[in-house]
Amino acid sequence: MSPVPAPAPLPAPAAPPRRRAHLITQWDPEDRAFWSAAGRRVARRNLWLSIFALFLAFAVWMVWSVVAVKLPAIGFRFTTNQLFWLAALPGLSGATLRIFYAFAVPVFGGRRFTALSTASLLLPAIGIGVAVQDPDTSYATFLVLALLTGLGGANFASSMSNISFFFPRAEKGTALGLNAGLGNLGVSGVQLAVPLVVAAALLGPLAGGPQLLPGGKQVWLQNAAFVWVPLIVVASLLAWFGMDDLATAKASFREQSVIFRRKHNWLVSLLYLGTFGSFIGYSAGLALLTQASFPAVDPTRYAFVGPLVGGLARPVGGWLADRLGGARVTLVTFLVMGLAAMGVLAALPRGGGAGSFGGFLAAFVVLFTATGIGNGSVYRMIPVIFSTFHQRRAGSDPAALAQAQKDALREGGAVVGFVSAIAAYGAFFVPRTFGMSVELTGAPHGAVLAFVAYYAGCIALVWWYYARPRAEIPA
């Protein structure tokens, strides 16, 4: 009778992340044992705290999309074009600051930079709350405050770069989709909350007295900014004490700047400008566009709908891209965006006709939904593109492959932040394009046609480089 074989020894449990204070010195999410035993829990904690901070950043960034509409009613004599400038300038400063924020996390650490960049939102939140209470506040002061709200837009680049380091490649699409999608809800949050909080003395006498509307109704427009102040303080403290820095994500700006020589960094930037640039640009300008095109409609009652569905659709885009492929989902997204933009064009007033506000709103809801899905799918393409690129360069040498994985992770994190910077310029160019079209032609039709042409170019780009059968990098 043969001896019974000894049972195989159980695998050693994965070691927890090594940490020193809030600095994790060993992190390998691609190790399944490590990820199941400890990595997933740590990554998810950082993700949810990041989402809360990013939600507030988007709320502050987009506060002018609602406040600008209300300024004429409380005594500020600004033209429609000046109001479009106030809605557009946060996009310009936010996009420009994102270029620097994109490289900040590997230099300063994700926990530290998230806490400090969130706390910086107190500057525009308090400034706007004070300025709107004095009808003698100069337009130049409002322009400066509009530029300062760009600090909220800049936070997206560092937030997405930070979260990309925590998750394995197989879950990046979903994780980045949740971070961005739920963070993006700050846009609809501000557009939904502001009409409610300005209607009452919600924050008491310390926040200041009311302003009078032409019909005698009282409003507290300062609440649109002040309401975010206590939440910003809480989010900053939670980030400082609850998040982590990853030593494995450390890199100098010089090490990250190699992405400027990568062709696919610029190609993906063009795609993301089409998706996120449209999402944030329409969010910034839709209320003013509605006011200019359908004067009988109160735009603040509907402005939150589009950003809400766009934000909720983003995690779906990441999830779909994880399963179907980012390039396929992105290609369909741009087709739908082009058709929806044509629907907007058909619903606008034309030739003396009143147009169809119902059709206009429905087309924008479809457009926002498509931008949200596209945001998630484009971001899912990034780690696939750079991982494939570096693996091909490494060949079959094990040492070269190990270095390729590190290079792909470092460059992918930098690209995630940088493309968000390029795309954020949509928050400036979309409202300005609408404003210029209205100023030059009396209608926004020319602007919408320009956006349709851009979507057609994105369809050609994603098909040629990433989606066709013999694409350069199937993504």
Automatic annotation (TrEMBL):
Keyword terms, alphabetized: Cell inner membrane, Cell membrane, Membrane, Nitrate assimilation, Transmembrane, Transmembrane helix, Transport
Entry membrane topology: Multi-pass membrane protein
Principal location: membrane
SUPFAM superfamilies assigned to the protein according to its UniProt record, in alphabetical order: MFS general substrate transporter
Matching InterPro entries: MFS, MFS_trans_sf, NO3_transporter, NO3_transporter_NarK/NarU-like
GO BP of this protein: nitrate assimilation
Transmembrane domains' residue ranges: 47-71, 83-101, 113-132, 138-157, 178-204, 224-243, 264-290, 302-321, 328-348, 354-373, 413-434, 446-466
Subcellular location: Cell inner membrane; Cell membrane
An example Gene Ontology molecular-function term: nitrate transmembrane transporter activity
One Pfam family here: MFS_1
GO cellular component: plasma membrane
Family membership noted in the UniProt record: Belongs to the major facilitator superfamily. Nitrate/nitrite porter (TC 2.A.1.8) family.
The protein's name in its UniProt record: Nitrate/nitrite transporter
